[in-house]
Amino acid sequence: MVKDGRIQTSSELEREIMKMFANAVMYNRWDSDISEWSREMEREAETLIAVFRSAERRGQGDHSSLAQSESKRRKKA
Length: 77
Fold this sequence. Notes:
Helices cover 79% and strands 0% of the residues. The protein has 77 residues and is mostly helical.
């Protein structure tokens, strides 16, 4: 999905990952190994996605501050 361009944003990727875990739980018995492993992996994925989101926000802030610095530098020149 990523390679063929159907997933283009981190939000779309997150939605597809969460859908995968939801499907694994819905289509297997609640107490099955697959369902239990899926719920465990979902919790881990949520943690990792939160870390990714945090880095993404910091990165966006860095880009905007870099753009502002570049703009100020150009005005001085």
